Amino acid sequence: MSxxxxxxxxxxxxxxxxxxxxxxxxxxxxxxxxxxxxxxxxVLASVNGPREMHPKHASLSQKAVVRIAYRMxxxxxxxxxxxxxxxxxxxxxxxxxxAFESVVLTKLYPRSVVDVFVQMIQSDGGSRTAAxxxxxxxxxxxxxxxxxxxxxxxxxxYEDHVCLDLSGIEDNVGTGDMPLLYSxxxxxxxxFQLDGLFxxxxxxxxxxxxIEAIKIIEEKQREALKQKYIxxxxxxxxxxxxxxxxxxSEITSETDSYYESTDSSDSxxxxxxxxxxxxxxxxxxxxxxxxxxxxxHSTTSESVEPHELIDYEVRKTxxxxxxxxxxDSEVSDEExxxxxxxxxxxxxxxxxxxxxGDD
Amino acid sequence: xxxxxxxQVITSTVERSYITSLLEANRRLDxxxxxxxxxxxxxxxxxxxxxxxxxxxxGNTKVIAGVxxxxxxxxxxxxxRGTLIVSAELNPTAAPHYRSGPPSDETIELARITDRxxxxxxxxxxEDLCIIEGKxxxxxxxxxxxxxxxxxxxxACALAAYAALATTNIPEYTIxxxxxxxxxxxxxxxxxxxPISITTYKIGSYTIxxxxxxxxxxxxxxxxxxxxxxxxxxxxxxxxxxxxxSEILEIVDKNxxxxxxxxxxxxxxxxxx
Lengths: 359, 273
Prior knowledge:
heterodimer; A: alpha+beta; five-stranded mixed sheet; five-stranded antiparallel sheet; 10 strands; globular; B: alpha+beta; six-stranded mixed sheet; four-stranded antiparallel sheet; 5 helices; 27% helix
């Protein structure tokens, strides 16, 4: 068949997807976040809410509003894009908002807003579907109740061949483009756009291929979300092992209860912190911080030794955990264990079977 | 408290007094010493379509900067100089209280301070960016996007802007009968020095460097200086609080040396690529 032999500009076959990489919990200050790479597309989505609607008159008395802002960074494309939102960005924001209103359980949060800010760091064909993949993962990461995940892909016509996941070049010279958002779990198409010249036959092929591709992408979203909790579990296990050797864990539990009564809001961001990109470098961090401590403040490092100070401060802030990573993992252990008991134990068996292979 | 926006970071009195009491013992929330910086990590060149790009990690504060280059006519008073425009945007990706939309006063200040340190340091010779005197020059746009604001955006943005610029490749050109054609081939930009921004925050009677966002919220004033190897190139004081004259002199002295340390880190981070 010629369809199978056709090779696209970047060497792909007609129904071959670009590499996709999904990562959740990448931002500390946001309630939920995700970073997606789809070929050359790089997207960052952050979720805040449900929270009070601003401006107030835009709120709805019966349900929450899902407000998605799709924005491109000025250096995300070949020419410099004016940072002021264009009509295209506004349209995409609108259709994405509508798509996600359909899956978010908005009636649970009347008069409020779930704010999603999606930024294209680099854009290269199919950026709105990459944005949707990131949005869906970020909403799930934020714990926003949804009926299902949404994934998406753009297909189209390049040199009259139906091709999946058009790249930027193909999109520019191609004769058709069809972005599609779909929930495999619900069998619901939540966004559909099309421009170009499709024959009914081509349309059917493109649509069916897209649905199959979206199922694969949704699976990757799930994996990314699980990956975050696997990282937390591994962290717990590591610190469990360490704690066996520790003798002075009593102070820890004492201050722990004090902490929980004063400030519990940080536990969420702390969890997110575990798998942020920097966490791997803790040994390096320790090195540099202790070096400069010795150089400049050798008097202070010895005199203030109470464990309490360090323990408390680690929990009070989500940042800077790197330099205290030892006491950090020991301390957050208690909190994480609770989380583990409540949410992870049931999954443990499931997770053990899970294949963790990256793309 | 430094005014950030109408919806600023809220810290409890308990938290603020805790931060202050730690300072009395020469300690900080995350165990750093008073003038210690969080770890600096710089990734560059990850946006292929930008002429230069950088992601700076200042602890958990993350800032992305990208450079785009166009050509245009020079300003009439400087016919032989290219132009450089540094802008910044604070949107809700960075922290929940930032709003998208027209830039807030805070965003404008951030962009202008960053522009000032890059411009005044002369780290780029704008005369290198002239193609035809009086007619055609390169326009360099540096766009800065903080993506995770965990404090001290001023210093992180300056680092990001510098790192993106330092790794920028400028497209070459040919001139055929007055027609200028930009080529696919690119040349690395020439950088003359490394400007470093150091911001000191004042909490009670204490001064700290590189504040986290909670420390920022507990502070009454801040002061930012831009340093090159031998000069002070920019300065900006912010917040409702004040510094005494002796405090300012002391801060300049200390931070000038601090900038040297940071500059070495930047060199190491940029050379690893």
